[in-house]
Amino acid sequence: MIVHPIKPLYNESSEILILGSFPSVKSREEGFFYGHPQNRFWRIMAKICNSPAPESIEEKTNMIINNRFALWDVIKSCEITGSADSSIKNVQPNDLKEILKTANIRQIFVNGKKAETLYKKYIEKDTGITAIALPSTSPANAAWSEDRLFEYWNNAITKAKKQRG
């Protein structure tokens, strides 16, 4: 069993929670979300936030917090081979209660199909919030270009921000 080594990233101003499945080997080594340089998450979020692409953990943290996002993953611990979502088994889900109690989360997005499946199976009934699935920013999702991912993510997040008023 591998236990999730990264704390959730949020504060009381966070309104949109983005959940991945479980940190990759690179992310676990770095001790921060989306640590693999080929993962397109940070470049896409920088465009959405109209910011330069963050490089350091401090820059990434500031961009997420300053734009009222929150980040975490669905899984607290699991068995996984390397970074392959397809190998995930014996899942223990994360408890989102503290984030939902502290922050004013108005929408939850999941990054990829595996995160969506696991969220629906383990967490949705507890939160009562239906998550919106976004196509994965992982380099394994080669069917989606970075431009196409940005357009989809940006449209979904912009729509969610407008609905909050």
Summarize the structure in words:
This protein is of the alpha/beta class and 165 residues long. 38% of the residues lie in helices and 18% in strands. The protein contains seven helices and seven strands, in the order ββαααβββαβααβα. The model has no long low-confidence stretch (mean pLDDT 95).
Terminal residue distance: 42 Å
- Counted by DSSP, the helix tally is 7
Q: What characteristic shape results from the CA principal axes?
A: globular
- Spatial order of the strands forming the largest sheet: 3-2-6-7
Quick overview:
By secondary structure, the chain is α/β, with parallel strands linked by helices.
Keywords:
single chain; 165 residues; alpha/beta; four-stranded parallel β-sheet; three-stranded antiparallel β-sheet; 7 helices; 38% helix; globular
Helix/strand layout:
Blueprint: E1 2-3, E2 16-20, H1 25-30, H2 41-48, H3 57-66, E3 69-73, E4 75-79, E5 89-93, H4 97-102, E6 107-111, H5 113-122, H6 124-127, E7 132-134, H7 146-164
Parallel strand pairs: 2-3, 2-6, 6-7
Antiparallel strand pairs: 1-4, 4-5
